[in-house]
Amino acid sequence: MATTDLTKKYRLLFLGTAIYNWFTAVSMLKPAGGFEAFGITPIPEENNVLHTCSLLIGSFGFVYYWASKDLYSNYDLVWLGCVIS
């Protein structure tokens, strides 16, 4: 396998992960639909913890996006993400 093929696969992997993290972060901003779907009542009014988790997940998405653009220069960020996870 050529190096460019492997690099392209890693780029697609990190880009897909970034999109997944952004989707997850946005879906956590307004969780009332999820509470209704699972029948959880009463729906919490304060969602500070969910919003903080959403911010962290979105931040991981940005790091994965940067890694998809240039993996070798952002290797330390990817390593940090592995350690934190």
What does the model show?
76% of the residues lie in helices and 0% in strands. The chain is built from four helices and no strands. The mean pLDDT is 81.
Reconstruct the topology from this structure.
Elements: H1 3-29, H2 32-37, H3 48-69, H4 75-84
Task: Give descriptors for this structure.
mainly alpha, 85 residues
Categorize the overall geometry: elongated
Run of helices and strands: HHHH
Which bin fits the share of residues in helices?
over 70%
Largest sheet: none
Distance linking N and C termini? 30 Å
Number of helices: 4
* Record field, number of beta strands: 0
State mean pLDDT (0 to 100 scale).
Answer: 81
As a whole number of angstroms, the C-alpha radius of gyration is: 16 Å
> What low-confidence regions span 5 or more consecutive residues with pLDDT below 50?
none
As a percent range, the share of strand residues is under 5%
Structural class: mainly alpha
What's this entry about, in short?
The chain has four helices and no strands. It has helices at 3-29, 32-37, 48-69, 75-84.
